[in-house]
UniProtKB/TrEMBL annotation:
Descriptive protein name: GAF domain-containing protein
Transmembrane parts of this sequence: none
Gene3D superfamilies membership: 3.30.450.40
Molecular functions per Gene Ontology: L-methionine-(R)-S-oxide reductase activity
Domain GAF: 53-153
Amino acid sequence: MFEQIEYSQSLEKNYQLLIKQLEALIEDESDPIANLSNSAALLNQFLDRINWVGFYLLREDQLVLGPFQGLPACVRIDIGKGVCGTAVAEEKTQLVADVHQFPGHIACDARSQSEIVIPLFKNKKVIGVLDIDSPEKNRFTKQDQIHLEQFCEKLMAYLPEII
């Protein structure tokens, strides 16, 4: 199935290993919910200093909570609202060092201090987002963004058109 992640000194190597672990988890499974669930669990295991990781899926004009790891979360988010809704509206990753400085931030967990939200694309259309929160300000770096975007691209390659 897959092996326990061994952490190395190199963040780059760790992310490469993470993506290999992702492929091992999802390559033989066709169910999108199972794959999103295992992807959230894998990220929760891999990433340190986070308090929430999961997916929101686009349903008509709202993001609806999907598989996640963490405390209960907001169930629906309007497009253009909060960090997740902004990522969909702008079709680009939102790297937020301090969520309290983000206009319209939606506080699902009061402990969250920083956040990264990566839009999920299928056939050049946004179908949802990967949302990761941290209880630390400035937790996520540009390097995290690059590798998490690669993670999402790999995940989307294995998911069917409609999830």
